[in-house]
Design a protein that fits this description.
alpha+beta, SH3 type barrels, four-stranded antiparallel sheet, 2 helices, globular
Length: 73
């Protein structure tokens, strides 16, 4: 069981960081259905509390840019 200090509460308006950039929680339906918005690209992404806590939320706009760059080279 987790102690109070280790719990991370996700709230609307909070900002988090992933390897794809900074994002903000804009809507929460439940622990498996949250909408976040990436600050750099404005992309809206459906995510989970687990992915937010782990910092593994991906920005589809940045993923597409990397694929296009790789194809050009």
């Amino acid at each position: 069981m987790m102690t109070e200090e280790k719990k991370i509460f996700v709230r609307i308006g909070q900002t988090y960081q992933s390897k794809h950039g900074e994002f903000e929680v804009v809507m929460i339906a439940d622990a498996r259905n949250l909408i976040v918005e990436f600050k750099d690209t404005g992309s809206l992404v459906k995510s989970t509390v687990y992915r937010i806590r782990q910092g593994t939320v991906k920005d589809p706009a940045k993923i597409r840019k990397r694929k296009v760059k790789a194809d050009v080279e």
